[in-house]
Amino acid sequence: MENIALKSVGITKYFHDPVTTQVLNKVSMEVRKGEFVSIVGKSGCGKSTLLYVLSTMDRDYEGELHINGVKVTGLSLNTLARIRNSSIGFVFQFHYLLPDFTSLKNVMIPALRLGKYSPKEIEERAYDKLKLFGVEDQALKKVSKLSGGQQQRVAIARSLINDPAIIMCDEPTGNLDSKNTGIVFDLFQQLSKTYGQTLIVVTHDEDFARRSDRIIEMADGVVKDHGY
Questions:
Q1: Which helix (H) or strand (E) holds 85?
Q2: Which of 19, 95, 152, 200 has its CA 20 to 30 Å from the CA of residue 103?
């Protein structure tokens, strides 16, 4: 278990509106520390739903979820919020940046919320993250003035501000052209290989998935292939 960043055991999930539908069926999987994993499957197969369960944002499921060796199933909302803010970074297809804030301020927000560092230290860390992704020159611009590729790099920098053990991504390149998709992939690979961070990426992009360490294939709410 020491080398396991995330483990699910028998995760089962239902939607109840308008009728009861099973979306996940006894999903059990492991992701090793420092591994770059892609989760693939047709639309509606349950991969994004699974990601939200794995991220602890969705607590309405059966089964167990362990993060860094700790069982998180059944923990309180406040405890899960602390775990998410300190241990999990999120990158989405739609970056969810605050358009009227600067790139720098957007990156700083999760760290200000966590309160582990002083505002000055957080600002320095935010600049470092922006520099890592080659957008430090955009630090003082409102994100509404940035290109789509720049915005997504700012969003990835934001996901790293608290040095999370796990980065979870839902279609992070869905709105990007091939050039920016390549840039994002190279950045993710660097995070995994150089910095030892664990990446779990839901994607429809087959080329992107093939270049990751392992592909987990889903169909009809179950894992069809763990990619080992």
A1: helix 77-87
A2: 200
pLDDT tens string 69-128: 999 999 999 999 888 888 898 887 677 899 999 999 999 998 998 888 899 999 999 999
Taking each helix axis as running N to C, give the angle between helix 119-132 and helix 103-114, from 0 to 180 degrees, rounded to the nearest 10. 130
Query: What token pair was written down for 91?
Result: 């990158």
pTM: 0.89
Q: What is the pLDDT of residues 114-145, one digit of tens each?
A: 888 899 999 999 999 999 888 999 999 999 99
* Contact in structure between 32 and 207 (CB atoms under 8 Å): no
Given a cut of 60, whether residue 1 has pLDDT beyond it is no
Domain chopping of the chain, boundaries: 4-225
Quote helix, strand, coil % in the chain, to nearest 5.
Answer: 40, 30, 35
- Is residue 108 classed as helix, strand or coil in its secondary structure? helix
Listed in sequence order, the DSSP H helices in 88-169 are 103-114, 119-132, 148-160
Q: Is 55 exposed, middle or buried (0-12, 13-18, 19+ CB in 10 A)?
A: buried
Domain at 4-225, CATH homologous superfamily: P-loop containing nucleotide triphosphate hydrolases (3.40.50.300)
